[in-house]
Write a structure and sequence with these properties.
alpha/beta, ten-stranded mixed beta sheet, about 40% strand
Length: about 400
C-alpha cells in the first residue's frame, strides 16, 4: 500500500477547513507522485527515496520509553523541546515570558494557526510537503512576541527510537514578530532503522526581526530524512540558517525563502560529510521579490566511498528587485573514485541593477599538504582528518553563536 493510500484516522477530520486542507495535500501528492528522473528538483537524489510500500504512517499517540524527553547534556544553556518518534512530548513547556508554544492540534483547535498554515508555499510544487499536508497532525506553533529577545537558544530534539518502518510527518509553524530575536537549534538523532522523517517548517519573520536557525542531522545511517523550510521575510528582517548533514540513506534539506520587502537579508550555509554510500542533498531557492534585499550561500561537502553529495541552489531576482545582492558558492572534496558530487547553481535575474555571483569547485585533498604533514611525523589518517576539519571550518565560522558552533563541530 502506498503512502497516499493509507486509510488512517487523524485528529480534526471533523473540522471542515482542516479536512479540506488535507484533501488538497493528498490531491497534490497523487498528481505529482514520488520523484522520478523527470522531476527536475529531484533528478540527482530521487533514487535515494527508495521503496515506500512498506512504510506505515503512525497516527497513534503511543508513549515513548522514557529517555527521549530527558534533558540533553549540552555545553550551553537552552530551552529544550522534545519529539519522540515523530510525536511532540508534553503539553507545557518551560519557555520565557513572551515566547509561547502550542502543540499543532491545540493551535488548530484554537484557530491561532489558520493565518499561517500552508500559507508560505504552493503545495503543488513540493511533493513531500504536500504529503506532509495530507497527514497534518503532529508538530507545534511557536510565537516569539513583538520586541522579545530570547536570552538563550531554543533547542528542539527529534529522537527516533522504535525500530519500525514508520513515516513521520511533522509540521511546525514559527512566527517571529516585529523586532523580536531568537535562536533555534534542531537536532535529529536516534538508533532506529528504516524510519522516514518528513519535516516541514513554515517560518514567518516580521519587520526588523531576527532568527538564527541551526540544524544538525545525526540519525541512523539507515534513515531517510527530508526537511523543508519555507520562510517569508518582511522589511529589514534577518534569517541565518546553518545545516550540518551526516551519513544517511537520504538526507535532504530544502530552503524556500521569499524576501518580500526592502532590506530583508537571508543566509543559508551548510556542511555535509559522507563516508560510505549515503546521499546528502542541500537545495535552496531564494526569491528576491523586493529591492535592496541580500542573500548569501556557502556550502561545503566531503564525499568518500560510494556516497553522493548534491547541491542545488537557485537565486531568483524579480523585475522590481533592483539593487539586490545575491551570492552563492559550493565546494566539495571528492575523496574516492566511486563517489559522486552533483552541483547545479542557478541565477534567474529579471532586474538590471544587481550584484550576483555563483560558483562551484570540486577536488581532492592537496597531496603536497598531506606530504608536508606526514614529513613532520603526522600519520596519514590524522593528516587527512586535520585537513578535512580545516576545510569545513570556514563554514562553521559562519555560525554567530560560538558555543553552538563548537558543539556542532564536536558532533560532526
Amino acid at each position: 500500500m502506498s503512502l497516499a493510500e493509507q486509510n488512517i484516522t487523524l485528529w480534526g477530520d471533523d473540522i471542515p477547513w482542516l479536512a479540506g486542507l488535507r484533501e488538497k495535500g493528498l490531491i497534490a501528492f497523487n498528481k505529482s507522485g514520488l520523484p522520478t528522473a523527470k522531476t527536475e528538483a529531484w533528478k540527482y537524489s530521487f533514487k535515494a527515496v527508495g521503496q515506500t510500500e512498506n512504510l506505515q504512517i503512525d497516527a497513534s499517540a503511543h508513549e515513548c520509553d522514557g529517555h527521549c524527553h530527558h534533558q540533553c547534556d549540552l555545553p550551553f544553556e537552552a530551552y529544550q523541546i522534545h519529539f519522540c518518534d515523530g510525536k511532540l512530548h508534553g503539553e507545557h513547556f518551560d519557555l520565557p515570558q513572551g515566547v509561547s508554544l502550542k502543540p499543532l492540534v491545540e493551535a488548530i483547535y484554537d484557530g491561532d494557526v489558520k493565518p499561517y498554515l500552508n500559507k508560505s508555499f504552493d503545495t503543488e510544487n513540493f511533493p513531500f510537503a504536500a504529503l506532509n499536508t495530507a497527514y497534518l497532525e503532529q508538530g507545534f506553533m511557536l510565537i516569539i512576541e513583538r520586541g522579545i529577545v530570547v536570552d538563550k537558544p531554543i533547542f528542539i530534539r527529534y529522537h527516533t527510537e522504535h525500530n519500525t518502518d514508520t513515516f513521520n510527518n511533522i509540521r511546525n509553524i514559527i512566527v517571529v514578530e516585529s523586532r523580536a530575536k531568537a535562536e533555534i537549534i534542531e537536532f535529529f538523532d536516534g538508533d532506529s532503522t528504516g524510519n522516514f522523517n518528513n519535516v516541514v517548517n513554515e517560518i514567518f519573520l516580521a519587520a526588523d526581526s531576527s532568527l538564527r536557525h541551526y540544524k544538525l542531522q545525526s540519525e541512523s545511517a539507515l534513515t531517510r530524512h527530508i526537511s523543508f523550510n519555507s520562510v517569508q521575510q518582511k522589511s529589514n528582517s534577518s534569517y541565518k540558517c546553518f545545516v550540518a548533514q551526516k551519513e544517511c540513506i537520504l538526507a535532504r534539506h530544502e530552503s524556500y525563502i521569499k524576501l518580500l520587502q526592502e532590506g530583508a537579508f537571508a543566509e543559508v550555509n551548510g556542511i555535509y560529510k559522507l563516508n560510505e554510500n549515503g546521499v546528502s542533498d542541500i537545495t535552496t531557492n531564494i526569491r528576491h521579490l523586493a529591492p535592496h534585499t541580500t542573500s548569501n550561500q556557502l556550502v561545503k561537502g566531503v564525499v568518500d566511498g560510494h556516497a553522493k553529495g548534491v547541491f542545488q541552489g537557485q537565486i531568483h531576482i524579480a523585475p522590481e528587485a533592483q539593487q539586490t545582492e545575491g551570492y552563492q558558492l559550493h565546494r566539495a572534496l571528492l575523496l574516492s573514485d566511486s563517489g559522486e558530487v552533483d552541483c547545479k547553481p542557478e541565477l534567474e535575474i529579471f532586474a538590471d541593477d544587481v550584484k550576483c555571483s555563483h560558483g562551484a569547485t570540486c577536488g581532492d585533498l592537496d597531496k603536497e599538504q598531506l606530504f608536508y604533514m606526514q614529513s613532520r611525523g603526522i600519520n596519514s589518517e590524522d593528516a587527512r582528518r586535520i585537513l578535512i576539519e580545516a576545510y569545513l571550518q570556514e563554514v562553521l565560522n559562519k555560525i554567530d553563536n560560538i558555543e553552538v558552533a563548537e558543539w556542532i563541530k564536536a558532533q560532526f
